[in-house]
From TrEMBL:
Keyword Ribosomal protein: yes
One GO MF term attached to the UniProt entry: rRNA binding
Name this protein carries in UniProt: Large ribosomal subunit protein uL22c
Pfam families: Ribosomal_L22
Main location per the UniProt record: plastid
Alphabetized SUPFAM superfamilies for the sequence: Ribosomal protein L22
Keyword annotations: Plastid, Ribonucleoprotein, Ribosomal protein, RNA-binding, rRNA-binding
Length: 109
C-alpha cells in the first residue's frame, strides 16, 4: 500500500498504549489499518515471548513508515497499446517499550 495512506493511520497510534492502539485500529475505516493491526499484535507477542514483558504495560514509542520498491506491471489497452500500473509498497517499523522498564522490541514488515 502507499506510504501516504499508511502514514494517515500511523499518525493516530503514535505514542499510545497497546490496548488503546488495538481499539483505534479495529474501529478505523481505512484499509491500511488491518496490516498495521497484525503488525502491532505480532510486536506485542514478540515482546511477551522473547523478553517476558506484559502486554498491558506496553506502549508504542516509535513508528516509522518508509517507501519500499514499486511493483510495475503493464495493462493492455485499446489499439495494441499498454498502460503502466505502479503498485507502491512500504516498510513499517514499530518499536514497543514497557512503561516501567527501558526494554524495547522491534518488529518489521
Amino acid at each position: 500500500m502507499s506510504v501516504f495512506k499508511t502514514r494517515r493511520v500511523i499518525d493516530q497510534i503514535r505514542g499510545r498504549s497497546y490496548e488503546e492502539t488495538l481499539m483505534i485500529l479495529e474501529l478505523m475505516p481505512y484499509r491500511a489499518s488491518y496490516p498495521i493491526l497484525k503488525l502491532v499484535y505480532s510486536a506485542a507477542a514478540n515482546a511477551n515471548h522473547n523478553m517476558g514483558l506484559n502486554k498491558v504495560d506496553l506502549f508504542i514509542s516509535k513508528v516509522e513508515v518508509n517507501g519500499g520498491p514499486i511493483v510495475k506491471k503493464l495493462r493492455s489497452r485499446a489499439q495494441g497499446r499498454s498502460y503502466p500500473i505502479k503498485r507502491p509498497t512500504c516498510h513499517i517499523t514499530i518499536v514497543l517499550k514497557d512503561k516501567s522498564k527501558s526494554f524495547l522490541n522491534e518488529s518489521k514488515i
